[in-house]
Amino acid sequence: QVQLVESGGGLVQAGGSLRLSCAASGRTFSSYAMGWFRQAPGTEREFVAAISWSGGTMRHANSVKGRFTISRDYAKSTVYLQMNSLKPEDTAVYYCAARSSGISEYTDYDYWGQGTQVTVSS
Q1: How many whole angstroms separate alpha carbon 15 and alpha carbon 121?
Q2: What is the reported pLDDT for 15?
Q3: Burial label, 54 (beta-carbon count in 10 A; 0-12, 13-18, 19+)
Q4: How far is CA 3 from CA 31, 40, 89, in A?
Q5: What pLDDT was estimated at residue 99?
């Protein structure tokens, strides 16, 4: 079992920055690929970014490339999502997820956090 707790969400103006954190506990953090997804009201959950268990492979959705960066800290068992140049369309609940069988851009992750709200005002 892996427990995931997101933090760092909030209200920010367009063009601003936020850093989301996801603290993992339970099974070995380094064994899991980690991902960030987001869901706006009335839409399906969509892929934002993912990082492999080794940290050697990262993927970002086209909509956030060049603005968002995923990273992980093994000593702190934490994965981050640095979000720069935020836009109103980035407004959503952001979820952290862990996957035992490698990196994925689909929602087929084993464990999910409760989500953190990000609101970008224009």
Answers
A1: 9
A2: 98
A3: exposed
A4: 14, 23, 29
A5: 97
Q: Quote the CA–CA distance of 46 and 1 in Å, as a whole number.
A: 24
Separation between Cα atoms, residue 26 and residue 40, nearest integer Å? 29
Are 40 and 91 in contact by the 8 Å Cβ rule? The answer is: yes
- Full 3-state SS string of 47-93: EEEEECCCCCCEEECCCCCCCEEEEEECCCCEEEEEECCCCHHHCEE
Using DSSP, how many helices (H) and how many strands (E) does the chain show? Answer: 0, 11
Residue-wise pLDDT for 35-83, tens only, equals 999 999 999 999 999 999 999 999 999 999 999 999 999 999 999 999 9
